[in-house]
Design a protein that fits this description.
By secondary structure, the protein is α+β, with helices and mostly antiparallel strands. 51% of the residues lie in helices and 16% in strands. It folds into three domains: 7-119, Acyl-CoA dehydrogenase/oxidase, N-terminal domain (Butyryl-Coa Dehydrogenase, subunit A, domain 1); 123-224, Butyryl-CoA Dehydrogenase, subunit A, domain 2; 227-377, Up-down Bundle (Butyryl-CoA Dehydrogenase, subunit A, domain 3). It contains eleven helices and ten strands. The longest helix is centred in the middle third of the chain and has 37 residues, at 226-262.
C-alpha cells in the first residue's frame, strides 16, 4: 500500500511546519506559558485566517479544504513537534468531528465558525469517578420546557479557559453507568450557571474544573447520536493524540541523538558507545512503529464500529507504550539535565507522559481490544 501523502497533503504539512518554525520555537512557547493567559490568541487567528489550516478536515461547502481524518493526523503530528498548546484537537478534531457526524443545520451553523477561528471548543466529558469509561456520567440534563437544565461536575477540561463553547456529555436518563441516556450537548461557555476553576497542567496546557449549577440550555444544543457518537469522536481524538505523539517522539529521539554526538565521555562522543547506539535504534523503531500504527488506525476510522474501535485500541496501546519507552530513554540518556525547565527535552517528556494515558492508557486499550476481538472471553 502506498502511504505517500498527496501533493495537497504535503503542501498542508509544509505550510504548517514553516509557520510553526517561525512562530513557535521553544523560547517563545515558554514566554506564552509564563503569560497570564498561558497562550497567544494571535497564533490561533493566524492558523485560521493566514493559513486556513483549521479547515483541513472539512468540506469545501463549509469553507474547508475537503480533507478528513488523515489531514487531521498530519496537522497533529506537526503540532506535536513544537509542543503546540493550540486547541486544534479539542476544536477541530473533536468538536468539528461531532458536527460533521451530526450534519444538518448544526453543522451548517457552527463548522464555518470553527474554520474561521471564531469558535473554540473544549470537550467536557471526564468526571472524577469516570476514569476512561465514557458511559460513567453523573452530570444530568433534565428536560425543562423546550430546553434542558444541566447539573454536574466535569474534570480536567482541556483548553476550557479559552473556549467559546463547551461540548458536554450529560445524562438524560438511565443509571450513572448505563450506556443508554448519555447524550452530547454543544453549549455557549458563557451560559449562566457554569462555574469554572482554571489551572495549568504539567505539560503546558490550561484546563478547568467545570461545575454546572442549574445551567439552562436550549433544546437545539443536543447533538443527536448518543453514546455511539461520543465513542466515535473519542476514537477520532485518540488517533489525533497518537499522531501528536509521533511528532513528540520524533523530537525526543532527534534531541537525544544530537546530545549523544555532543556529550563527551572518556575522550569521545558517547554516540560511539555500542549500548547507546542500540538504544538510539530502539527509540527510532518505536517512532516508526507509532507512525505506521497511527496511519493504519486513520485509514480504518470509517469502518463499522467494532472494527474501528479495535484498530484505535491497537494503535493507542502501541503508541502509549512507545511514548513511555522513548520518553524515559531520552531522559535517562540526558541524565539530570533531561528534566530541567531550561531544556526542551524535559518538556517533550512531560507531554509524552500525558499522552500515554490520554483517552485511555495501554492497559485500558489492551483490555478493550480483547473484549472487542474475543467477546466470548469477556
Amino acid at each position: 500500500m502506498d502511504f505517500t501523502y498527496t501533493e495537497t497533503q504535503q503542501m498542508l504539512r509544509d505550510t504548517l511546519a514553516r509557520f510553526l518554525a517561525d512562530t513557535y520555537d521553544f523560547d517563545k512557547r515558554q514566554k506564552m506559558l509564563a503569560s497570564e493567559a498561558g497562550y497567544d490568541p494571535g497564533i490561533w487567528r493566524a492558523l485560521a485566517t493566514e493559513l486556513g489550516i483549521l479547515g483541513a478536515p472539512f468540506a469545501e461547502a463549509h469553507g474547508g479544504l475537503d480533507g478528513g481524518a488523515l489531514e487531521n493526523a498530519i496537522m497533529m503530528e506537526e503540532l506535536g513537534k513544537v509542543l503546540s498548546i493550540e486547541p486544534y484537537l479539542q476544536t477541530v478534531v473533536i468538536g468539528g468531528g461531532a458536527l460533521k457526524s451530526v450534519g444538518g443545520a448544526q453543522a451548517e451553523a457552527h463548522i464555518p465558525a470553527i474554520v474561521s477561528g471564531e469558535m473554540v471548543i473544549a470537550f467536557a466529558y471526564a468526571e472524577p469517578q469516570g476514569r476512561f469509561d465514557l458511559a460513567t456520567v453523573r452530570t444530568t440534563a433534565k428536560a425543562d420546557g423546550s430546553g434542558y437544565i444541566l447539573n454536574g461536575h466535569k474534570s480536567v477540561v482541556m483548553c476550557a479557559p479559552q473556549a467559546t463553547h463547551l461540548l458536554v456529555t450529560a445524562r438524560t436518563g438511565g443509571g450513572h453507568r448505563e450506556r443508554q441516556g448519555v447524550e452530547l450537548f454543544l453549549i455557549d461557555a458563557k451560559t449562566p450557571g457554569i462555574v469554572r476553576r482554571d489551572y495549568p497542567t504539567v505539560d503546558g496546557f490550561r484546563a478547568s474544573e467545570i461545575y454546572f449549577e442549574n445551567a439552562a440550555i436550549p433544546g437545539d444544543a443536543l447533538l443527536a447520536g448518543g453514546i455511539d457518537l461520543i465513542e466515535r469522536i473519542v476514537d477520532e481524538a485518540t488517533i489525533g493524540v497518537c499522531a501528536e505523539a509521533t511528532g513528540v517522539m520524533a523530537k525526543l529521539h532527534e534531541g537525544t541523538l544530537d546530545y549523544t554526538k555532543q556529550r563527551q565521555q572518556f575522550g569521545q562522543p558517547i554516540a560511539r558507545f555500542q549500548v547507546l547506539q542500540h538504544r538510539m535504534v530502539d527509540m527510532f523503531m518505536e517512532v516508526e512503529q507509532a507512525k505506521s500504527m497511527t496511519i493504519m488506525a486513520t485509514l480504518k476510522i470509517d469502518l463499522p464500529a467494532i472494527e474501528r474501535m479495535a484498530a484505535v485500541s491497537q494503535c493507542k496501546a502501541k503508541v502509549s507504550r512507545g511514548a513511555n519507552f522513548v520518553g524515559q530513554n531520552a531522559v535517562q540518556t540526558h541524565g539530570g539535565i533531561g528534566i530541567t525547565q531550561e531544556l526542551a527535552i524535559g518538556h517533550y517528556f512531560k507531554r509524552a507522559t500525558m499522552i500515554e494515558s490520554q483517552f485511555g492508557n495501554a492497559d485500558f486499550h489492551f483490555d478493550r481490544f480483547e473484549r472487542l476481538t474475543y467477546p466470548e472471553a469477556a
